[in-house]
Amino acid sequence: MDVDLIERTLEIAGERGEDLTSRVYLRLFAAHPEMEALFIRDTNGSVRGEMLARVFEMILDFIDGRAYAAQMIQCEVVTHEGYGVPPEVFGIFFSTVADVLKESLGADWTADMDTAWQDLLGEMVWFSTHPDQTIEARVG
Ligand code: HEM
Predict the structure, then answer these.
(1) pLDDT class of 138 with cuts at 50, 70, 90
(2) Would you kindly state where each structural domain of the chain is located, as residue ranges?
(3) Is 105 in the pocket of ligand 1 (CB under 6 A)?
(4) Is the pLDDT of residue 140 over 50?
(5) Which of 25, 29, 80, 83 to mutate to test ligand 1, by most ligand atoms within 8 A of the CB atom?
(6) Dist. CA 5–CA 3, nearest whole Å
(7) Which residues contact 111 (CB under 8 A, 6 or more apart)?
(8) pTM higher than 0.85, yes or no?
(9) Ramachandran region, residue 108 (left: φ > 0; alpha: ψ -120 to 50; beta: rest)
(10) How far is the CA of 51 from the centre of ligand 1 (A)?
């Protein structure tokens, strides 16, 4: 996975100062309307904002050192079961983040960036579909 390219996509999107939070959730709910209902208790959008901020921080750790990010994905899969969020949704959510970055970068998005993100998505999804940390400890 090309870490520099992933960082570059995040930097460019950051420099553009766009409201990525609205775009991520608009896109997610347009494609998966049933997911909007999960956020029923989030009356002012603060949970959505906080959640996406944590996801971006997690991605930065996932690609650079991975001190906690892999375990965080696994833990969140378990805690989110309590919110009625099925594990499969994590892959959809991560892909939506990548789609929004791609859309935000427009002509600056390259094929290599696309490959880097596909690699990253594949690795993150592995942890979301394998939340049992004892199994991860054995293979890792
Ligand atoms: C690694 C990925 C994720 C992380 C780090 C994460 C993080 C969080 C955090 C920190 C909160 C609590 C925010 C607060 O109370 O201030 C939260 C709540 C929530 N998350 Fe996530 N989340 C992730 C993935 C997902 C996915 C894929 C979905 C489904 C679309 C989802 C749906 C929700 C919902 C519905 C709540 C609110 C639950 C409630 O209190 O009613 N999360 N998430």
Answers:
(1) low
(2) 3-139
(3) no
(4) no
(5) 80
(6) 5
(7) none
(8) yes
(9) alpha
(10) 5
